[in-house]
Amino acid sequence: MLVRLAAAVRGRCDAEALAVMAAARRRLLADTTELLLHDPGAGPGGRGGGVRRSTVAAVARRSSGAAAYHRLLCRLAELAGDGIILELGTALGLGTLALAAGAPAATLHTIEGDPALARRAATLFRQQGLRRTTLHTSTFDEVLPSLTRRLPRLDLLFLDGHHEKDATLRYFSLLLPLLHPESLVIVDDIRWSRGMWQAWQTLRRHHRVTASVDLLRMGILLFEPAPHRRRLTWWPHLSH
Length: 240
Description:
Order of helices and strands: HHEEHHEHEHEHEHEHEEE
CATH class: Alpha Beta
Number of strands: 10
Strand content: 15-25%
Number of helices: 9
Radius of gyration: 17 Å
Shape: globular
Structural class: alpha/beta
Helix content: 40-55%
Largest sheet: 8 strands, mixed
CATH topology: Rossmann fold
CATH superfamily: Vaccinia Virus protein VP39
Low-confidence stretches: none
CATH architecture: 3-Layer(aba) Sandwich
């Protein structure tokens, strides 16, 4: 898996998929529609649970990151093939779009706790015809217990919401039984806060994790049996 991961990080996404992602990103960055956000997780500065006003463009700039990271997500999703992907934290749906572009035959579940963001993401998914993507509008704690009972396994898990140490570790523990030796776990924003960095350090030392890759913004956990645990830091070339 580590060899396949290295190839994916250094690879390229389909040109048509890249064009679709770029166009969607441009539309959101130009959208000044006002949103009333109810963030159930950790928001700016690690604060969650409040109500605030913002715009689609502002959320796109803040939560979606650089376009290069969507291209990286697209390449990583290819490793899931026709398997099952779960994303915690849909936001406006650009990350989901990247995952779906990289693994068009996969079954994709994504959870968003903010109704305003979920409505915008649902519109994007309809526009792009993401028929294999299911959007769950509720908190992670409300959705995951029932969802985990229905899923036979997870081939790719993307942790990109509720950026707090204890929450991140709790969701990982809850979903751990669905992970298998070929699973891939992506932990986004590992340098978001001291707590997220501590969560990442705890996860990479977990007894089932056999390799971890630090990609600066995000970290990747692997579970393939190996005689020795490996901890790597890569500076990915993100221009593709």
